[in-house]
Amino acid sequence: MYILYLIIFVLMLISFIKDKQRTLKVLKMAYKKFIKIAFPFFLMILLVSIALSFFSEDRIINLLQNSSVWLNSLIASLIGSIFLMPGFIAYPLCSVLYQNGLPMMVVTAFVTTLMMVGILTFPIEKKYLGTKVAIIRIVMSLLISFLITIIIGLLWGEII
């Protein structure tokens, strides 16, 4: 990660040397955009955090321990679709779910939708990307998630 910071710093320095006024103008624009998006972004993080407090590991495990792997995968997809979570939080959570006996297909449905869909982020996406693009992104993410879930189910022998 530090390499990326170094590369960005070097490129900014080159830009500053080449055209000081233009670089400062772009930095001011970036700062204004950051300030404009900061409040909605932090509000979204707050909402996701509050919503996640209602879904502890035990509650998720209890919800996903029905008899049908298909029904469990669908429920896992619905729960995962609501939230958006980075991998460094999602992977350990899914590891706990798998270690507690949930089928890999169910865990896959949960983690893929958890990291790709994020319905709670729709208002921000709608504002900055437009309604059509935001809906297309969510639908495509769901389709890819279902495809990955089926492939994992086949590979792990949980579906025939």
Structure, explained:
- With 160 residues, this protein is mainly α.
- It folds into two domains: 54 residues; 105 residues, no CATH class.
- The protein contains eight helices and no strands.
- The longest helix has 34 residues.
- The radius of gyration is 20 Å and the shape is elongated.
Question: What's the short version?
Answer:
With 160 residues, this protein is mainly alpha-helical.
Descriptors:
mainly alpha; 2 domains; single chain; 160 residues
Element layout with pairings:
Blueprint: H1 2-18, H2 20-53, H3 57-63, H4 69-82, H5 87-99, H6 104-116, H7 122-129, H8 131-155
Helix pairs in contact: 1-2, 4-6, 5-6, 6-8, 7-8
Number of separate helices: 8
Whole-number average pLDDT? 88
**Class per helix and strand makeup:** mainly alpha
Share in helix: over 70%
List the secondary-structure elements in sequence, H or E: HHHHHHHH
Radius of gyration: 20 Å
Total domain modules: 2
Which residues sit in consecutive blocks of at least 5 with pLDDT less than 50?
Answer: none
**Count of DSSP strands:** 0
- Beta content comes to under 5%
Largest sheet: none
Shape, principal axes of CA atoms: elongated
